[in-house]
Amino acid sequence: MRESSLPDLGVGLIGTGFMGRAHALAFHSARTVFDLPVNLRLVALADADAARAEQCARSWGFDRSHAAWQALIDDPAVDLVAITTPNHLHYPMAMAALEAGKAVYCEKPLAVNLAQAREMHSTAKKVGVVTRVGYNYQHNPILGLARQMIQAGELGRIVSFQGEFSEDFMGDPHASWSWRCEHTHAGGALADLGSHLLAMARYLVGDVDSVCADSQTVHPERPALHGSPERRQIAIDDQTYALLRFSNGARGTFSSSWLKHGYKNHLSFEVSGTGGTLSFDQERLNELRYYRADAPGRDGFQRILAGPAQPGYAAFCPAPGHQLGYNELKTLEVHALIQAICGGGNEGPDFAEALEVERLAAAIRVAAREMRWVNVADI
Fold it and tell me: What residue spans define the domains of the chain?
């Protein structure tokens, strides 16, 4: 094989769960689909289970494995640290990587509390490395088109945003406790699902000035283990609802739930303006529904299919209607990250944007707890 003349970019991946596999696939796909400005090397993979780390490193194409994540960060061949661990580990891992002067690609939410998120952002800013956070739905080509249409004024003046992110993986009250149920480790449906929707609202409509909210723990205890008589108390939200006031004058609604039966990935929104409405559902991620108010006699929504006219889509398929999926969105996210590291673009949410998402989520928690409107700038 001929040696590449491009500079190396060494990747270190922490975590071997579903998201770790998604990152590994995305790094492999990015090398296949795009002409990258670097030689992307999968250098090291870390997991606390040494045997699993070794097995996944071998099958996923990494050069070596580490049982300790700090050893991966200390690995001199690693330039980019990708973090796919439970939420409470994002902070110590990202801080260690930043202090080592390495680029950081961290899954969402950025941290388990606002203080951590602030410190992560300020450290990244001081060190001056590229950071990205895994709000991969924003890299969907059809949502790039939605944002373009909104910014071009095709909907007129934006007056409302209605958003929902519902799944049902915690809908069974007998489902066992997991790290997602611990508020110091996760943050409930608002953090796990709602952070995606808050990031989407900001991406499409802009800053939110103030919020009013309510949240609920529907199942206050769960079995400690599957089938176990031992019960563990739950202190995080199963569902959260909020009203939003955007800086541009638009009003919005927000809801997140992980126990709404029948929904598997229902990240959905409607954006309405004085000239029309756009509608989207992640369970049909390759299409938009568009209604124009200035087309009398043509009532009903038009279906717009994703296709090669939208940036990113053509890298995978030359024809519309052939569908991109979750892993393609992750590949587009990785491509944008690599371009940013190489000085070729600034697409995708970094730690600064993720901090604003965390600030908005924190404002919603305060509003729900104190039963009042909260100004986001005061948080």
Answer: 8-136, 139-324+349-378
pTM of the shown model: 0.95
User: Quick check: 77 and 149 in contact, CB under 8 A?
Assistant: no
* Cα–Cα distance, 263 to 284 (Å, whole number): 12
Single out the residue of 59, 23, 33 nearest to residue 327, CA to CA. Answer: 23
For residue 83 the two structure tokens come to 């973090």
Spatial separation of the C-alpha atoms in residues 22 and 151, rounded to whole Å = 31
Measure the CA dihedral 57/62/64/68, to 10°: -60
CA 72 from centre of chain? 24
**CB-CB neighbours of 349 under 10 Å:** 24
Mean pLDDT by groups of 10 residues along the chain of 379 residues:
77 97 98 96 97 98 98 98 96 98 97 96 98 97 98 98 97 88 84 97 98 96 88 92 98 98 98 98 98 90 96 95 96 98 93 98 98 98
Please check whether the domain covering 139-324+349-378 is classified as CATH 3.40.640.10.
no
Residues 169, 219 contacting (CB under 8 angstroms): no
What distance in Å separates the CA atoms of residue 266 and residue 196, rounded to the nearest whole number?
A: 11
Q: What is the CATH number of domain 8-136?
A: 3.40.50.720
